[in-house]
Amino acid sequence: MRECRICSAPIEPFMSFGPTPIANGFLTPDQFAGEYFFELAVGFCEKCGMFQLIDQPDREQMFHEHYHFFSGTSRFMTEHFREFAEHVMDDFLGDRSPERFVVEIGSNDGIMLQNFAKAGVRHLGIEPSKNVAEVARSKGINTISEFFDADLARAIVAKEGQADAFLAANVMCHIPYFHSIIEGIKVLLKPDGIVAFEDPYLGDVIEKTSYDQIYDEHVFLFSLKSISYAFGRHGFELVDIEPQETHGGSMRYILAHQGRRPVSERVKAQLAREEELGLHKAETFLRFRDNCEKSRRELKELLVSLKEQGKRVVGYGATSKSTTVTNYTGITPDLVEFISDTTPIKQGKCSPGTHIPVKPYEEFQKEYPEYALLFAWNHSKEIMAKEQAFRDAGGKWIVYVPTVEVR
Ligand code: SAM
Ligand code: TMP
Fold this sequence. Notes:
Layout: E1 2-3, E2 10-11, E3 13-21, E4 37-44, E5 51-53, H1 59-62, H2 75-93, E6 101-105, H3 113-119, E7 122-126, H4 130-138, E8 143-144, H5 150-160, E9 163-169, H6 178-188, E10 189-200, H7 202-208, E11 220-221, H8 224-232, E12 236-244, E13 250-257, H9 265-277, H10 282-308, E14 313-316, H11 321-329, E15 339-340, E16 358-359, H12 361-366, E17 371-374, H13 380-386, H14 388-392, E18 396-399, E19 405-406
Parallel strand pairs: 6-7, 6-9, 7-8, 9-10, 14-15, 14-17, 15-16, 17-18
Antiparallel strand pairs: 1-2, 3-4, 4-5, 5-11, 10-13, 12-13, 18-19
Helix pairs in contact: 2-3, 5-6
Bound molecules: S-adenosylmethionine and thymidine-5'-phosphate (TMP).
């Protein structure tokens, strides 16, 4: 029995994906012996609606000077964050003067803040992983390498003053000390300031059985109910939502200090939709568990059968998400020859836990395999558009979200 990280109600795991390594812990053979594993088990709190990991590795084990995720590797995401920044400047800041102050946590290589920097808006990135933060700094983006929490927020206010906007993408769901984060936002944000952050949406995960959104970094999967509850305890109000296609289905939450902005009808409508989906009920997660097990069985059977037929299968995109899939399903180098990835720091290393070699994209192009297992399924539009030659050569895609299929 554990306590919910948000409301302290007792929670129990409803499923476990078994021993799992650090999702972004790509490694070399000399590191295999000391590889770290933890049990990837998940629970759901019926009181406040928060979906969460039972245990999470320490933050320093995940976010450090050798962090393997560089946001700028996708052109689609670069455009996505340009649009996000434009939206904030046009619709929330009101102008682009240097008087405005924007803070982003988990700013990584500066993929979003570069747009504010270009527009001359005062900004601060908070990015603890030093290697990616350094890339941002080299682009002229003000970045400090710290973990955000309430203490850091107080230090920022003392030095820089309060902010007009607090932004985050794919990081709020990473942070177990969530109340300290919200307390920090409370201190940091001007009375009329705005909070805008986005993360993978629990509703999409349940609807698509995209269980690969569950890995060490994602200590939470949010819904409107859980976000309203957690922020409500600190005097914030969820005033709008903006569903996103990114990461296979995300939700952008817009929040303000209580009573400062009108609440959009969209919030009410989506809360009703969550009820319909059963997102607030424990039994939904038991069905989800059955769907995960079915997906695992079918994917394994398909890969074993292709191996028996002597077909070559290569993975496409050494994503953090794929660490859950490969470890849970038991996808080892005898089933998938290598994984192609464009991120230099991942190349020449092996996938966490299952030790499939990660090779540069050129290896994929050099001799197309018969099948490509699409681990980066969330980038499928971008990838399909550029891989026509693979198709023309007779190549087929294996996908597993929402169901296992050969296309
Ligand atoms: N925002 C980028 C994006 O969407 O592409 C990067 C997302 S990446 C998955 C999460 C980032 O959050 C990492 O770069 C990590 O170092 C950073 N991070 C983790 N905990 C943090 C904290 N407490 N404060 C600020 N950043 C944090
Ligand atoms: P993500 O799903 O967490 O954004 O990670 C995507 C990974 O896939 C990242 O390591 C880069 C890689 N990738 C490719 O190798 N080729 C591509 O065309 C794209 C879009 C991503």
